[in-house]
């Protein structure tokens, strides 16, 4: 004989399911609010860092487009409480500075700071140290700005097979010829970019000592040390490589105080 259960016994189960659904929805809402709060905090931090970087660039007598800052690692608020940030990336565009009277332009300068240590009290008061374990920089020097420094009419620079190339018109012993060749590119002891043109030639060059001497003197005249603008965050240049878009400069630094850059 079938047994009928009271209707009011099913109601608590339905109310229990409604309660669980309500709690689940509430948790989703809280999680969403935390995500929103986390992203808002990231935006505030990125703007503050961007303002500081802009101030430091101005102090160095340089100019650039507004810095693009990205604070990496999630969740951000957990990093704030821990006082350690995984990664901060700063992208600078059209960096220009006057070095010894000559204009040096870096179309791109990307800086990445890793394992940045900053206490919550330091962020709140602005007092104290903000230190990055490592900072890496990657920039590009345009060939146009290098050619302007060499100050030879018609001279152009470029890249071929990983080498820095040069072409320039010249009047050699009454003949209009085109000089071409390659250069060795290294980092000088003072951090400048050393250009050494040791392999120059010109099609149709007369086989005369005077013509060869002209070519040798021309190579020496364009072999210079290119001074770079002071890089932020104590970055020291380690490597320079010719690329199609310009000379790629790689720099790094360790244990860098971010809040006193440059």
TrEMBL record:
One Pfam entry name: LmeA
Protein name from the UniProt record: DUF2993 domain-containing protein
């Amino acid at each position: 004989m079938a047994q009928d259960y009271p209707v009011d016994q099913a109601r608590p189960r339905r109310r229990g399911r409604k309660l669980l659904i309500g709690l689940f929805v509430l948790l989703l809402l809280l999680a969403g609010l935390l995500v929103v709060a986390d992203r808002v905090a990231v935006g505030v931090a990125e703007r503050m860092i961007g303002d500081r970087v802009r101030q430091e660039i101005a102090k160095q007598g340089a100019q650039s487009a507004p810095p693009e800052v990205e604070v990496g690692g999630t969740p951000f608020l957990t990093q704030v409480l821990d006082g350690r940030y995984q990664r901060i990336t700063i992208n600078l565009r059209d960096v220009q500075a006057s070095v010894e009277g000559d204009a040096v332009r870096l179309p791109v300068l990307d800086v990445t700071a890793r394992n940045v240590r900053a206490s919550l009290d330091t962020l709140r008061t602005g007092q104290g140290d903000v230190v990055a374990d490592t900072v890496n920089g990657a920039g590009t020097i345009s060939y146009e700005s290098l050619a302007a420094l060499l100050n030879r009419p018609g001279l152009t620079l470029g890249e071929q097979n990983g080498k820095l190339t040069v072409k320039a018109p010249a009047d050699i012993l009454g003949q209009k010829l085109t000089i071409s060749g390659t250069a060795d590119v290294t980092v000088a002891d003072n951090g400048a970019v050393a250009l050494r043109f040791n392999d120059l030639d010109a099609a149709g060059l007369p086989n005369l000592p005077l013509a060869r001497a002209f070519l040798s003197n021309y190579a020496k005249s364009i072999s210079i040390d290119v001074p770079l603008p002071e890089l932020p965050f104590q970055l020291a240049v380690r490597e320079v490589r010719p690329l199609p878009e310009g000379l790629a400069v790689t720099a790094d630094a360790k244990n860098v105080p971010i809040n006193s850059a440059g």
